[in-house]
Amino acid sequence: MAATPVRERTRHEIVRQAMRLFQDRGYNATSLQDIASAAGCSKATVLYHFNGKPAVLAAVLEPAAADLAGLMDSAAGLSQAEAQEFAIQQFTDLAVRYRGVIDVLQDILPVIDEMPEIAQLVADGIRLTDLLAGSDDPLERDLAKFAINGLLGECRHPGERTDDELRNLCDIALRRILRSA
Amino acid sequence: MAATPVRERTRHEIVRQAMRLFQDRGYNATSLQDIASAAGCSKATVLYHFNGKPAVLAAVLEPAAADLAGLMDSAAGLSQAEAQEFAIQQFTDLAVRYRGVIDVLQDILPVIDEMPEIAQLVADGIRLTDLLAGSDDPLERDLAKFAINGLLGECRHPGERTDDELRNLCDIALRRILRSA
DNA sequence: TTGAAAACTGGCCGATCGGTCAGGAAGGAT
DNA sequence: ATCCTTCCTGACCGATCGGCCAGTTTTCAA
What we know:
Shape of chain A: elongated
Strand content of chain A: under 5%
Number of helices of chain A: 9
GO molecular function, one term (chains A, B): transcription cis-regulatory region binding
Distance between the termini of chain A: 51 Å
Largest sheet of chain A: none
Keywords (chains A, B): DNA-binding, Transcription, Transcription regulation
Order of helices and strands of chain A: HHHHHHHHH
Radius of gyration of chain A: 18 Å
Protein name (chains A, B): TetR/AcrR family transcriptional regulator
Domain HTH tetR-type (chains A, B): 8-68
Oligomer: homodimer
Helix content of chain A: over 70%
DNA-binding region (chains A, B): 31-50
């Protein structure tokens, strides 16, 4: 088969279990041993495939980071008003699609600046906030940050809401707080 | 002097330094040794005055918890509409007054249910959410939770905003999202 | 001044953490 | 079957954590 399937299979299982555990207990409360046990391998194997615990986190966040980066590219040539509407729609969609992953971000925030592995994701997130603001007014920018914080918190406790319910809630909340409906 | 001033003096210094460190680095990233060093005593002394690390956290949160509890008492006999307006004003005020303490709560959230020491604070916080909703409509209740999450996040990074700026931002954001202005 | 209570401390404990390393097992091309 | 690469592991390391305890110092009322 293409390249080495065994390598990818193990890596994928590690990432899958890490995502599940990060969601359940948070990043800090999940040890490499926890991930290894859940993935059916040894802790040394996890560290063979990933260069440290932050690298595992980066792998977990990678699909969301890639989608967000693509989203920001698409918004490049838009006007401020267009970009805001685009951001509301696409970010709501992104939040729903990666609701579990977003949940993981919660207890990384205090040390997120010390994680070069996800610096691009953070940078894109900040740019998205600017788009959401739809204005250079400091108040509107703060409100956009307020909205994102609310949305991040709302993605916690997955399973309490269906995807459609979450999508609807996010859309309403963003439009109320951003005054663009 | 009244009772034992030496005891209270040490306890107070420990709590003061713990609050500062919890704000700066977060609860989990702050060790008992860090607190002890900052307070100018030994780790054993911290554990002599407080029955474990969660007890230190509870002491740090205590003033805010007491004010919140009093606030909930005051709202007892109000109508739903009155209670909502009351909640918006008082919670904004509370958030500003204890902005540092609220910041501390952030990285406790994943395990907040396993901390009996602050169960009352959590319970009052949930009741406050109900008041803010101003309605039994599930959507409005979710939006209230959304607003609280946004406000919690906004209290992060103290010092970037003055108290008045924060108060104004919270008031505007709450009224926009709760549709009660 | 004295002696008991309160306040405090150094040293130690078991557990757990992320991470390293030498070497064994598995797998595929020849 | 051979051999080299890839994959994987048990054992171990140093550091750090929260917490405990025996014993010392300080405080203060009698």
